[in-house]
Each structure stands twice: as structure tokens, then as C-alpha cells.
């Protein structure tokens, strides 16, 4: 079981909302909307993805990493390294 499993339906709902935002961006470009209006919507979609990713990361840390840390050994080291790499990717994006 993954850390996000208990919130899966909520996550899927959020991702569908974000998908709608991205489709809206496509529509705006197709309809030749004003650049600043499109950029405003890009910012909103970006923030929504960032918020989702932080929540997913929190769930990963509190579930997957904690469980691995309790077991110790190589698995714990691997989960901590994965989390660290994921955080680095999020910071760079």
C-alpha cells in the first residue's frame, strides 16, 4: 500500500481539475487569447501541481519513509535517498 492510497479519490479529483486547467490553456491558445491572460492561467496550473506534489511528498515521507526507517538497513537508506532526490527535483522545478 502506498502512502497516498487513503487519499486516492481526492488526489484523482485534484488531478482531473488540473487537467481541466491545462485543457483550458490549450483552448485559450487556440482562440488567440491575450498572452497575459494565458500566463495567469499557467501560473494557476503550476501552483496547483506544486500543491499536489507537496501533499504527495508529505504522504510519502510520513508513510513510506517512516516505515522503511522503522525497518532500518538498506531499505531505509534507499527511501531517504529517493525522498531527497524527489525534493531536489521539486526545488529545481
Automatic annotation (TrEMBL):
Pfam families linked: Trns_repr_metal (PF02583)
Matching InterPro entries: Metal_Tscrpt_repr, Metal_Tscrpt_repr_sf
Principal location listed in the UniProt entry: cytoplasm
Coiled-coil residue spans: none
Record key words, sorted: Copper, Cytoplasm, DNA-binding, Metal-binding, Repressor, Transcription, Transcription regulation
Example GO molecular function: DNA-binding transcription repressor activity
GO CC annotations, alphabetized: cytoplasm; protein-DNA complex
Family membership: Belongs to the CsoR family.
Protein name, UniProt field: Metal-sensitive transcriptional regulator
Amino acid at each position: 500500500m502506498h502512502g497516498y492510497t487513503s487519499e486516492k479519490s481526492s488526489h484523482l479529483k485534484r488531478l482531473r481539475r488540473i487537467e481541466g486547467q491545462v485543457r483550458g490553456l490549450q483552448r485559450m491558445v487556440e482562440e488567440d487569447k491575450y498572452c497575459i491572460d494565458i500566463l495567469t492561467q499557467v501560473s494557476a496550473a503550476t501552483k496547483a501541481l506544486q500543491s499536489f506534489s507537496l501533499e504527495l511528498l508529505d504522504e510519502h515521507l510520513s508513510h513510506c519513509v517512516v516505515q522503511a526507517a522503522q525497518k532500518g538497513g538498506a531499505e531505509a537508506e534507499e527511501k531517504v535517498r529517493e525522498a531527497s532526490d524527489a525534493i531536489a527535483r521539486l526545488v529545481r522545478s
